[in-house]
Specification:
single chain; Jelly Rolls; 1 helix; globular; four-stranded antiparallel beta sheet; mainly beta; about 160 residues
C-alpha cells in the first residue's frame, strides 16, 4: 500500500472520529506573520440552544524564536457587539522542546480561546486575530513573526454531562 494512501486513510479516520467539531478553518502564513496583518474568519449561525468552545489553532516550525506568543483576538457579533481579548500562550517547555502535536519540525497547537459560549444572535460571526509579540525591552512589536505557518479557528459543541 503506498505511503500517501496510509496517511490519507489516517487523516480521514481522525477527522471522522472527532464529531464535536462544528466549524474549522485555517489560513496559511507562508512568509511569516506581519504585525500589521489581521487574520479574519467568518462562521455561520449555529444552534442558539447549544453552547460552544472556541479554539485558536496554530502551527509553528523550529524557526519560531520565542517560548510564548501574544495574540489579540476579537469577536464581532452579528448585532454589533465586539469582544476583544489579549491572549498569551506558552509554546515550549522549560527545556526548549515544543508544546503541541506533530512529527518533525512542525507542531500544531490547539489553544483554548472561549469556553461555553452561546452564539444566539442570528447572522455571521467574525473573528479577527493579530499577533502582538515583542522582544524584551522593545516597545515596537516584532515586524514579521517567523516560524508561524498557519493560524485557524475551530468551533466545537460542548458536551452536556
Amino acid at each position: 500500500m503506498p505511503k500517501y494512501l496510509v496517511v490519507l486513510v489516517g487523516i480521514v479516520l481522525f477527522i471522522s472520529c472527532d464529531s464535536k467539531i462544528i466549524f474549522s478553518q485555517n489560513k496559511s502564513l507562508p512568509n511569516g506573520w506581519n504585525k500589521e496583518e489581521v487574520i479574519k474568519f467568518d462562521f455561520p449561525k449555529l444552534d442558539s440552544l447549544k453552547t460552544y468552545n472556541l479554539f485558536i489553532n496554530l502551527r509553528n516550525t523550529n524557526d519560531y524564536r520565542y517560548n510564548n506568543i501574544f495574540l489579540i483576538a476579537e469577536i464581532n457579533f452579528p448585532h454589533g457587539k465586539t469582544v476583544t481579548d489579549t491572549l498569551e500562550y506558552k509554546m515550549s517547555n522549560p527545556d526548549g522542546s515544543w508544546l503541541g502535536t506533530g512529527i518533525g519540525s512542525v507542531k500544531e497547537n490547539k489553544l483554548w480561546y472561549k469556553e461555553h459560549v452561546s452564539l444566539s444572535e442570528n447572522g455571521i460571526y467574525k473573528i479577527s486575530i493579530s499577533q502582538a509579540v515583542r522582544n524584551n525591552g522593545n516597545v515596537d512589536g516584532v515586524s514579521n513573526l517567523e516560524g508561524i505557518t498557519d493560524i485557524g479557528i475551530s468551533v466545537e459543541e460542548t458536551t452536556q454531562e
